[in-house]
Amino acid sequence: MAPTTAGDLLLEMEGITKRFPGVVANEAVDFDVRRGEVHTLLGENGAGKSTLMKILYGLYHADEGEVRLSGKPVTINSPSDAIDRGIGMIHQHFMLVPTLTVAENVALGLPPIRRIRQDLGPVRERISELSDAYGLQVDPDAYIWQLAVGERQRVEIMKAIYRDVSLLILDEPTSVLTPAEVDDLFVTLRQMTDGGRGLVFISHKLHEVMALSDRITVLRGGRVTGRTMPSETSREQLAHMMVGREVQLAPTRLESKAAEARLKVKDLNVLGDRGTPAVTDFDLEVRSGEVVGIAGVSGNGQRELAEALAGLRPVVSGEVVMNGVETTDRTPKEIRRLGVSYIPEERMRDGAIGEFSVAENLILTDHDRPPISRRGLLDFKQIEDGCSDLVRRFTVKTPTLDTPTANLSGGNIQKLVIARELSGEPELLIASQPTRGVDIGAAEYIHTVLMDQRAGGTAILLISEDLDEVIGLSDRIAVMFEGRIMGTLDQEEATVQRLGLLMAGVSE
Amino acid sequence: MSDFFTVSVLLATLAAGIRLATPFLLAALGETLGQRSGVLNLGVEGVMLLGAYGAYYATLRTESVLLGIVIGLAVGGAMGIVYGVVTLALKAEQGISGIGIFIFGLGLSDLLFQKQVGTPTPIDGLGDLAIPVLGDLPWVGEVLFHQNVLVYVAFLLVPAMWYLINRTPFGMNVRAVGETPEAADSLGVSVNRTRYITIFVGNALAGLAGASLALELGIFQQNLTNGHGFIAVALVYFGAWRPVGVMAGSMVFGLVSAMVLQWKTLGIVVGTTASIVGMFPAVLTILVLVLVSRRTGSPSALTRPFERGH
Amino acid sequence: AEEETGRSADDPIRIAMVGPSASNDLAFTQSMVDSLNRLGQEYNIEVDITDGTFVIEDAAVAIRGYAEDGFDIVLAHGSQFGGSLSEIAPDYPDTYFAWGTSRDTFGLSNVYSYSVKSDQGGYINGAMAAHLTESGTIGVVGPIEVGDIKAYIDGFVAGVASVDSSITVNVNYIDSFSDVALAAEAAQAHIEAGADVLTGVSQMTVGATGVAREHGVLWFGSQSDQTPLGEEIVVASQIYNWDYQLGQIVEDLLAGEQNGRVITADFSNGGLTMAYNPNFALDADVREAADAVQAGITDGSISTGIE
Amino acid sequence: MLAAALIGAVMLLILGANPLTGYAALVDGAFGGTKNLANSALKAMPLLLVGAGITVAFRTGVINIGGEGQIIVGAIFSTLLVLAVPDVPRFLLVPLAFLFGALGGAVWGGMAGALKSYAGVNEILSTIMLNIIAVQILNLLLRGPLMDPGEIERGSRIPHTERLSGNADLPILPGGTRLHLGVVVAVLMAVACYVLLFRTTQGLRLRASGHNPFASLYAGMSVKRNVVLAFMYSGAMCGMAGVTLVFGSEGHRLATDGGATTFTGAAGFNGIVAALFGGLHPLWTIPASFLFGALLVGANAMQRAVQVPAALILALNGLVVVFVVGSMQARARLGRTAARLRAEARESPADTEAPDPDAAAEAPP
Ligand SMILES: Nc1ncnc2c1ncn2[C@@H]1O[C@H](COP(=O)(O)OP(=O)(O)OP(=O)(O)O)[C@@H](O)[C@H]1O
Ligand SMILES: Nc1ncnc2c1ncn2[C@@H]1O[C@H](COP(=O)(O)OP(=O)(O)OP(=O)(O)O)[C@@H](O)[C@H]1O
Ligand SMILES: [Mg+2]
Ligand SMILES: [Mg+2]
Fold it and tell me: Which of A200, B238, C117, C208 has a CA 20 to 30 Å removed from the CA of B97?
């Protein structure tokens, strides 16, 4: 237990309890933040981290408990209350208006400078001042939709700094950033704490937690299960505290000899949403029984590459051969029929249908093939059996097969998607960010499954921004930068440093 | 044809086109504001009918056109509050509750008319109002500046609405709320408050649109609007949620209808060919949209109710 | 009569009417309602009205409903109802059906059809219009080109020509009985094309008369007295009073005979009359001319040339 | 529903009529005796066909307010067929008429679908415009080529077709009422819509793209194609409604007076309302449209009984819709919560994870 001296206490949350129908998201949670410190919240999916912070930010109301700011009890009923009290929050999912400019997003909700005519001049100036002061490079007049993920993250932080918050909450801010960006972010955050601000940091990435935190509080099932600091603990201990059992952080890769090529990509060119080149003269080969990792800063063409391979994005030129079949002009359906599976990057957007039951989502890709479909009719007996089997095999935690999928937690939805995609014993698997936003327990499981597939002779293309993951799983790693391959490393020679350089566009 | 292409007839047709475009324009501008904040209102037709009846009845009783206009606005605004409660507080499915509002307006306006007035009684509606100087300009003056006051209002509202949406702090909130309500909310912008305002104004304009019809005609009748409201909604999509685009759409409908009428009057089209010509505006609208593909611009949160923490 | 219609002499005669527009539309439907009211002063009748049934199938259901309920006479007041009536009437041989305007009884003895020689009033109105126009252009706002409406308009055009064939008459069928907005624009278009006298038929004309008033353009009405639509501009209206036809049908009923036939109203049998707007200062010799034409038409010395 | 009834009562009072007598007349006019019940059912028939079709469109995530036009085109197609081959025996001609009607509706609906999928034209706009166009086509045909020759020679020129071949009359059902085959077809088709949506691969695809087009694309479906299909199904249903309105009508002909709803009786819109009463579920749409049809029929009875314009009922229907939608949403929310509770009850909280709100927030715009 770290000693606290009441004087510099910025925030105290005491005995916070929050119940949702059927779930106790937070149970008698005590939590505090001092000026100038980074206090990390750690926990599995569904542990209650976001809920606790949403209470603090006025998005939810606590059923019990008290919140004090600088010693004074306060009630926070809405985000605006929180903002007025100097609290800022960077949400797990960006809270930006794509069709507005950076300046407009920053100015949103602030008392207008002039009643009638919108005047953003002062806002722009202040933004550029702050960009210089904190090394946050953002163009005030750029539209959000034009920005890459990393830049959007900076806009989020700019919004907080601009409002000169004294307490900033960051809910999984790094899950979409690359090492370089994470380092920059941490520098900025440190600058903020030096200025006497207090930060709450939420992340599933233990090395980040170790690197940034002053104090760490671990939640499990809504309860506080441990308080510590980096100097007193290790990643393994933290993992144990979170999950409540031993977790193996680095996946074991058994030997497996790569056989014939399952995916061949030659001179592939693909355009991005704005018609600009996203993937350029791209060459790649993935053989059965091997994992090829694609590392890179988000927004360097990975998404477009995956979509092109999936048949969701037109190919400008070049060729893609899967199992010996040219697929550049094939529909997603035809491509799937070739034994290709995907784990899409955005699980709730592309992977599953929230309103559909677990069962319906499990048959989404095979619904029109026997045994599930007979002459266009669905065979519910088959579906029932097949799905309960999958749910068991992939330990998807769901009350029933008819439960709406949106009612599952992030980790389990991801498991559901993986269960579906692997059910057909794919010969080629394209996995984008398979463990993003998923807790280490689930991540561990997913990694094992991927390794099993590899051992079973599946060819796997792993697109991930989590370098530990890429290095841990891949036989070969290609680094993408501005749509091109900057370089390819074998697993042995790959290190975070070398990859980091390539990702920054520095070829060797 | 020849007698159509005489200056006087052409000018007359233009003037008529502008007059016919006015109800569309007023209603569509209102709908635009609502949709920019993420609320679809298919009930415009019903609101127009109630506004039309309100304006007609007020003028009939008090012989004050001005009061008629005010009542038209007020009735529309009142319906706006109703629609706001239904879609924002009760979070009703917007597409459908709009249809409900339509049917309600259709029924109630007819009911009230039959009970309170009965036999069609003409009123002195809106006379033309010649703008001094400008009205005397050759040609232009006749076409543009000998119109009734609501015509001027409608067309002045186009730049006004553009300014409101794109150049004012409130407009920025509207755009944000229509695009990413969660983000606006997380910065303390009240999503529903913003939407209540846009719905109120939007429906008030629909009411005014109805009033403009009734007062221009100086009469009311069951289902007076006869589809104007639905076309107005369509024109919002035609205009890609931009006031100027909406104006273009309204003009297409106004001018083509005016042209068709002139042709019929002058016997240029007769009998069944008239029906063919009658399709022009609709066909044209679709064609234009096919040619100038307008996938973009739709407010992302359109028809999506906002609930905090979800 | 008893066994045929199941009613004893002193029971009131039960008459039902189905009308396409409102009973107070100052046009087609109202003209029949007014006639029924007048009929009530002569005979002991009981009337039931369903109006505003512009949906043809709704009207058909009402017509059959009335027949089911044992009404003695069922009036399908609208030429668009004939199609349904021809199917319903055979099922109720004891019920007297009448419909109009039309000249077709489907060869059934229990179906009467009434029509009006509306071209006659049209002719008279036309003649007056010809005298009154100064611009030499006259406009007509019509709904759709059917039955008595077409007859009226053709008669009107003929009437104008009978006075001065150099006058232009622009006829505009707007394809709707009910769209007042369209009617108004049509009137506007006429005026912009130089018309200083207008006429029109059916309930949508209330839109046209509004415009006429605004521009102080003269108006001639038909079907029903349209003076209320514009004290200052309405010159005269041809009035349909169906008393004549109704009278004949009721007499047949009381006599217990069914001899379904076409009953045509015109100026000679009083089924058509003219109503002049008392508040309109109509030039004396124009009025004389009009009366002369009416007299000629009545005694047959003048023919409208419309069949 | 109740709220609307109360408001209605108040309105009746204001209009100086006795609500009790009013409602009594309404109920009697709608349900009193087989004759009235039959009339209600007949009024409900087109609403059911349209409504059940609408549910398919709504479940695929598209709003089809083009029912009016699709009804008309369906009617035209079937009429043309019957005019072309009037002598085909009845047991063939009736099914053929329905087939052509469905075809016509599907074509007209499909156009809106194709315009949306392949030209990016919003369906609200296109359907409204297609409605206008359909009305004009109807006027054109009935005033021109399809006009009853008899009308032309008599010079009365009423815009309707000749009395269509008796072989196409929808057979009257036994039982001495006016009920005819159309009612049966309507119910069967509603069931068919249910099967389509919830029992077939097609239906799964349709609902999938309705809820989440992105995931549907990833799963290998073609959302564009599904949108077109949904509009075609929906249109086909409306087209059949058009068939019943022609061959089940008293006149057994296609007729208009130029007005937009003279032929359809606004079934294209009222069908949407019926679908809504039925919670956008094809089967519930059956009782829902019957109820709605009954209301419309009863309205006239009430009008005659207490001399209050039938428009009142229209106004009330509007209210009901508005209220029902509101409460439906409320109920839906309760339902979700209840489901979660039940789920939790079954599983011990320890190994259950209730929904992740963030996941929920990830749903596509
Ligand atoms: N709005 C809500 N309605 C119902 N249950 C909720 C809601 N929000 C959160 N929960 C439940 O509360 C628990 C805590 O959720 P929370 O989002 O705080 O977890 P978390 O620690 O942020 O997980 P993650 O690491 O995936 O973000 C979970 O079981 C979640 O399902
Ligand atoms: N919207 C769609 N997207 C992708 N594929 C489709 C779509 N609709 C149909 N298909 C495929 O086209 C083929 C025939 O389509 P159809 O709709 O007739 O299939 P079905 O009758 O539903 O039976 P099944 O779909 O089970 O083959 C099937 O392989 C079906 O999977
Ligand atoms: Mg969270
Ligand atoms: Mg989460």
Answer: B238
Ligand number nearest CA of A52 is 1
* Nearest Cβ partner for A365 among D220, D345, D361: D220
Alpha helices in chain B (DSSP H): 7-36, 44-62, 65-84, 94-112, 132-136, 140-144, 149-167, 169-179, 181-186, 191-217, 228-238, 243-265, 272-291
Question: Measured between alpha carbons, how far is A299 from A360 in angstroms, rounded to an integer?
Answer: 32
Q: How far apart are CA D347 and CA B25, in angstroms?
A: 58
Give distance in angstroms: CA of D357 to centre of ligand 3: 8
Parent domain of B205: 7-295
Asked if A touches C (at least 3 Cβ pairs < 8 angstroms), the answer reads: no
**Interface residue D249 vs chain C (CB under 8 A):** yes
Q: Say which CATH superfamily domain A261-503 falls into.
A: P-loop containing nucleotide triphosphate hydrolases (3.40.50.300)
pLDDT at residue D5, as a whole number: 77
A248 in Cβ contact with A206 (< 8 Å):
no
The answer to whether position D237 is within a domain reads yes
Q: Does residue B99 lie in a domain region?
A: yes
User: What pLDDT, on a 0 to 100 scale, did the predictor assign at position C4?
Assistant: 47
Is residue D18 in a domain? Answer: no
What total number of domains does chain B contain?
A: 1
pLDDT, tens digit (0-9, with 9 covering 90-100), for C206-245 = 899 999 998 999 999 999 899 999 999 999 999 998 999 9
Do A6-243 and A261-503 share a fold? yes
Domain residues for D301?
Answer: 28-334
Q: Is residue B303 part of a domain?
A: no
Q: Is A438 in the pocket of ligand 1 (CB under 6 A)?
A: no
Cis peptide before C101 (omega within 30 of 0): yes
Judge: D129–B295 Cβ closer than 8 Å, yes or no. Answer: no
Whether pTM > 0.80 for this model: the answer is yes
**Cβ of D205 less than 6 Å from ligand 2:** yes
Instruction: Determine if ligand 1 sits within 6 Å of the CB of residue D362.
Output: no
Q: DSSP labels for C177-239?
A: SS-HHHHHHHHHHHHHTT-SEEEE-STTHHHHHHHHHHTT-EEEE-SS--GGG-TTTEEEEEE
CA distance C75 to C58: 14
Using a CB-CB cut-off of 8 Å, the residues of chain B touching C175 are 274-275, 278
Report how many domains make up chain D: 1
- Does domain A6-243 sit in CATH 3.40.50.410? no
Complex ipTM tops 0.95 = no
How far apart are the C-alpha atoms of C23 and B279, rounded to whole Å? 32
Residues A356, D208: C-beta atoms closer than 8 Å: yes
Indicate which CATH number applies to the domain containing B168: 1.10.3470
Contact (CB<8Å) A354/D358: no
Tell me how far the alpha carbon of residue D191 lies from the centroid of ligand 2, in angstroms: 21
The sign one gets for the Cα dihedral A45, A77, D333, D206 is negative
Distance A26 CA to ligand 4 centre (A): 15
D contacts of A409 (beta carbons < 8 Å): 353-356, 359
Closest partner residue to A353 (CB to CB) among D208, D339, D351 is D208
* Proximal ligand: closest to the CA of D216: 2
Is A100's CB within 8 Å of B176's CB?
A: yes
- Please name the amino acid found at residue D199: R
Closest C-alpha to ligand 2, atom 27? A368
Q: Summarize pLDDT for D174-196 with one digit per residue, the tens.
A: 988 899 999 999 999 999 999 99
**Is B183 an interface residue toward D (CB < 8 Å)?**
no
Relative to the CA of A47, which ligand 1 atom is closest? Answer: 21
Q: Quote the pLDDT of residue C281.
A: 93
Whether D353 maps to a domain, the answer reads no
Q: Does residue D64 or residue D156 have the better pLDDT?
A: D64
- Neighbouring chains of A at 3+ CB pairs within 8 Å? B, D
Name the strands in the sheet holding A72-74, side by side, starting at the edge strand that comes first in the sequence.
A23-34, A9-20, A64-69, A72-74
